[in-house]
Amino acid sequence: MSQENPLHHFELEPIVPIEVMGIDLSLNKAIFAMWGGMAIVFILFMLVVKGGLKTIPGKMQSIAEIFMEFIKGMVGEFIGKEGMKYFPFVATLFFFIMCCNLIGLIPGSYTITSQLVVTGTFATIIFIMTLIIGFAKHGAHFLSILVPPGVPKIMIPVMIPIEIISMLARPLSLSVRLFANMTAGHTVLAVLFGLVLSAPGWISWMPFGFTIVINGLEIAIALIQAYIFTTLTCVYIGDVIKLH
Amino acid sequence: MPQFEQVSVFASLGFWSVVSFILLLVLLAKFAFPPILAMLEARENKITGDIRGAEDLKAEAEKLKRDFEAQLKTAHEKASTIVQLASEEARKIQEKTLDETQAKCRQMQKETEHEIQTSRNQILSEIRGYVSALTITSAEKILKRVLTEDDKKRLVDESIDEVVKSLEKQA
Q: Does B6 touch chain A (CB under 8 A)?
């Protein structure tokens, strides 16, 4: 019973079984929800673009432009002049995480970002990408990122392991932050909704009211977490480009 | 937690989320982002251009204003000079006219005096003639005799002098 276990709705069952070379790639509710969110984002963008972009924008165009300007500003601020070539990646990451977070708020849907394996995969890809960018741009000099400027030479043997741990903690914190926020929010919602169903009629309005409030809060958290994930990605890319 | 326990879905979730992300990235980067970014840049350029144009126009307007003010100042100065010159000219003309009028008046006065004097002399001469004729006639009748030319002249002159004196007294 979902009322008994608030984590029950995180369980996934295969809907379309697919197996490639012994690996289970079955499609499940989370993947369909993710595709639904992506489709909404893409369709909204296409509506804006195909509707004809105007110098004096309409409502839809204004919203799209606000998001684009926002991400453009973020890229410019944290990565710098070279940042615009990473703009498509950063913007897609923002819209992808945002749509995945928001689509999960629809009852019966699923938040794929509440899966640590998904957030971990993205965080790992971003981490590897930053290493590739760093080595491609600076070569072996990129390793100087492990020695903060102004550190006395005697401290270098101590600082390098600390910096390595700090670097490795980045993808970990990035993935756990998003996963934990999404999981916590949906768990709270599930608990409150369970209370609505199990509480006597005269008092059930109270958890139901909280459900509405928390749902509103979850919308904000969905946007904020997408922003944080994207901002930290920009910061990490900016760090390897600028090297301190 | 199912997120840690359902190991069987890890590969599926990881694979499809990455594939889906790449697909979304390709679609948005190809169809959505470029036109919107181009529009943002075009608007930014237009706003920058408009602001620059407005600044240029403002600078031009200020220059024109300065030019007009300078021209206005010059025109005021010219007008003042013209008024001053006109006043000076008017004053000179007035003085000249006054002098001429005065001279004319004096001339007319002189001529009038001269005419009066001439008329007076003429009148006196005529009176002298009438008086002499009258006196002679009267004297001839009184004396019943003929006077010599010298007597006539002496008597006439005496009579005339008396008449002239009495006339002058009356005048």
A: yes
